[in-house]
Design goal:
- 74% of the residues lie in helices and 0% in strands.
- Helix 1 packs across helix 4 and helix 8 runs antiparallel to helix 10.
Length: 197
C-alpha cells in the first residue's frame, strides 16, 4: 500500500503484508467471506499472526479505510495549498482525487462498499475524516465564490457532487481500459470546473 496515515514506514513488515493481504482478500471475496486464515495465508503468516498486529478482521478493515481516507485528505490539502487561485485549487483537487481513485481503485472500493461492516466507533472515525475531506473542498468553493471565480449557490451540495464524481471513479475503473489514471484526473479536473463556472 502506498498510503500515508499511520505511516507505513512505522508499521512492521508483517503488518504491512497483512494490510495488503486483507485488501486483496476483501476485494476478491468481500469482507464477510474473507477469513483471518485467508489473510494470514496470503501474507505468509499463521492465523494467530493476524492478532499480533490487529485486534480483529474488522480492525484490519478499519485500518485500510482510515489510511485511505487520511491519504486522500492529505493529498487534497496539499493540492489546495500549492495552488495560486481557487480555480487552480479545484482543478488540482479534482485531478488528484480522481486519479487516486483510479490508481487505488481496489482499496477505494473496499472503503466504500464495506463501510457498513465497521463498528459504530470506527464508522464515526471514518466519517470524521470524510468531513475533513469535504471541508477542504468547501473552503476552496467558498474562496472561489468570494473571488468571483465560481458561481455556486449551494456550497455544501456542490462539494458533495464534486467529491461524488471523483469517488465514483473507483466503481467503474479497470486497469484494462484505455484511459490512464492521469488522463482521468485531467478530465475530471476540467469537469469539476465546469460545474462551478
Amino acid at each position: 500500500m502506498s498510503t500515508p496515515g499511520r505511516s507505513v514506514e512505522t508499521l512492521s513488515d508483517a503488518a504491512v503484508r497483512l494490510m495488503e493481504a486483507a485488501a486483496d482478500a476483501f476485494a476478491a471475496k468481500g469482507f464477510h467471506a474473507t477469513t483471518t486464515r485467508d489473510i494470514a495465508s496470503h501474507a505468509g503468516l499463521s492465523p494467530a499472526g493476524v492478532y499480533v498486529h490487529f485486534a480483529s478482521k474488522e480492525d484490519l478493515l478499519f485500518q485500510l479505510s482510515r489510511e485511505g481516507h487520511e491519504a486522500a485528505r492529505d493529498m487534497l490539502v496539499a493540492a489546495a495549498s500549492a495552488a495560486g487561485s481557487p480555480t487552480e485549487a479545484l482543478r488540482s483537487i479534482m485531478a488528484v482525487f480522481s486519479q487516486w481513485h483510479a490508481e487505488h481503485f481496489r482499496v477505494a472500493r473496499i472503503v466504500q462498499y464495506e463501510f457498513q461492516n465497521l463498528t459504530a466507533e470506527h464508522r464515526e472515525a471514518v466519517l470524521g475524516l470524510r468531513k475533513e475531506i469535504d471541508s477542504v473542498v468547501r473552503d476552496v468553493l467558498t474562496a472561489g465564490v468570494a473571488s468571483g471565480e465560481f458561481t455556486v449557490t449551494d456550497v455544501p451540495d456542490t462539494a458533495l457532487a464534486l467529491l461524488s464524481m471523483a469517488v465514483d471513479v473507483a466503481r467503474w475503473y479497470d486497469p484494462e481500459i484505455k484511459r490512464t489514471p492521469e488522463a482521468i484526473g485531467r478530465t475530471y479536473g476540467e469537469l469539476g470546473l465546469r460545474l462551478v463556472t
